[in-house]
From TrEMBL:
Enzyme kind, highest EC tier: hydrolase
Name the record gives this protein: Signal recognition particle receptor FtsY
Quaternary context: Part of the signal recognition particle protein translocation system, which is composed of SRP and FtsY.
Localization: Cell membrane; Cytoplasm
Xref: SUPFAM superfamilies: Domain of the SRP/SRP receptor G-proteins, P-loop containing nucleoside triphosphate hydrolases
Stated family: Belongs to the GTP-binding SRP family. FtsY subfamily.
Organism placement in taxonomy: Bacteria, Bacillati, Actinomycetota, Actinomycetes, Kitasatosporales
Length: 400
């Protein structure tokens, strides 16, 4: 019996111990975190009310502009307007009368070799055959040409023989007379810009690449403006990059209107429009700058003929000026022949006569084409294009 009681007591003790262990382990476990508090929700601002629901505005202190402290040195804000584009200043070219006389010193610096060489040879005590051959060589070297050289030498030989005495003054006067005769003072060297039927005079400028056609056209515009004409420029050189921009710059400087088309467009169309606008504006002259082309390229030359025909549908051509680089010498004569066949040249413009050019090319090209040299270029200045004057030109050749 005692054993049973002891077993029951032990069982109770064991159960009590186990119950304490279980309770203790439960107490040692972390409690779960409390649920998050609900976020504060800010009520949206109330919408303004109108009518009876409107609130009475609250009085708030306000300051006048005089009471507001401004930063030191601050002034009123000024809004600057972008400067308006200024129109290019119109230049007034110098008058053309006597321009070649004013430029004679520049011409004589490069041409005196011809005149001085001839005077030196003619001043020899004995003019034998060797001396006359040297005179011929001097003239040929100056690009005078074979036939004009032979004619000049024959006349000089006859007059020197008849004259007898040969003082420097007499020889200079003799040479001057013969050279003027050879240059051709009787030729009409006027740049015709008056259309007998009314309307503007139409001038087309042609030539090979690199002779300075666009520059010459711009300078010719200055010559005509200086003589009181209004001018329209036609930028028919649509193949060379920036050719139209270059021509328009020349025109803007003297107030000439420029007609242009898209780059690579039809040059005949531009030329046609230029003449049309010139007639509408009652301009005095229309100058058409054409693209440079090799005289050996048949297709390009045919296209030049097309430009001429299209222009003549609007108005007759009064001038076709061929621009020649005077430094090319006899090669320029080959170019001149081809252009004369295609577009009927009426006048010559010789450029770069202030460089290494020989003055005799004036005589040779006139003799070859039968048309006069009307203008000569004597430098890169805007007013260095001068009407050709035989007397002033010969005086520059032989010096004072």
């Amino acid at each position: 019996m005692d054993i049973v009681i002891l077993a029951v007591v032990i069982a109770v003790v064991v159960l009590g111990a186990l119950g304490g262990l279980i309770v203790g382990s439960r107490r040692r476990k972390p409690l779960p975190p409390p649920p998050p508090a609900a976020p504060d929700i800010t009520a949206p601002p109330t919408e303004p009310h109108v009518g009876e629901e409107a609130e009475t505005p609250r009085e708030e202190p306000r300051r006048t502009i005089e009471e507001v402290d401004l930063p030191a040195g601050a002034g009123p804000v000024v809004i600057e307007e972008p400067p308006a584009a200024e129109a290019p200043e119109i230049e007034i070219p110098e008058p053309t009368a006597g321009r070649l006389v004013r430029l004679r010193a520049r011409l004589s610096r490069s041409q005196n070799a011809l005149g001085k060489g001839l005077l030196t040879l003619l001043s020899r005590e004995h003019l034998d055959e060797d001396t006359w051959e040297e005179i011929e060589d001097t003239l040929l070297t100056a690009d005078v040409g074979v036939q004009p050289t032979q004619e000049l030498v024959e006349r000089l030989r006859e007059r020197v023989k008849v004259l007898g005495t040969r003082t420097p003054e007499e020889l200079r006067g003799l040479l001057r007379e013969e050279l003027i005769t050879l240059v051709g003072p009787e030729m009409d060297r006027t740049v015709h810009t008056e259309n007998p039927a009314g309307g503007p005079g139409v001038v087309m400028v042609v030539g090979v690449n690199g002779t300075g056609k666009t520059t010459t056209t711009g300078k010719l515009a200055r010559v005509l403006v200086a003589d009181g004409n209004t001018v329209v420029l036609g930028a028919a050189d649509t193949f060379r990059a920036a050719a139209a921009d270059q021509l328009q710059t020349w025109g803007d400087r003297v107030g000439a209107h420029t007609v242009r088309g898209p780059e690579g467009g039809d040059p005949a169309s531009v030329a046609f429009d230029a003449v049309k606008e010139g007639k509408e504006m009652a301009a005095g002259a229309v100058l058409i700058d054409t693209a440079g082309r090799l005289h050996t390229k048949t297709g390009l030359m045919d296209e030049l003929g097309k430009v001429k025909r299209v222009v003549e549908k609007q108005a007759p051509l009064d001038e076709v000026l061929l621009v020649l680089d005077a430094t090319t010498g006899q090669n320029g004569l080959v170019q001149a022949r081809v252009f004369a066949e295609v577009v009927a040249i009426t006048g010559i413009v010789l450029t770069k006569l202030d460089g290494t050019a020989k003055g005799g090319i004036v005589i040779a090209v006139q003799r070859e084409l039968g048309v006069p040299v009307k203008l000569i270029g004597l430098g890169e200045g805007a007013d260095d294009l001068a009407p050709f004057e035989p007397d002033a030109f010969v005086d520059a050749l032989i010096g004072e």
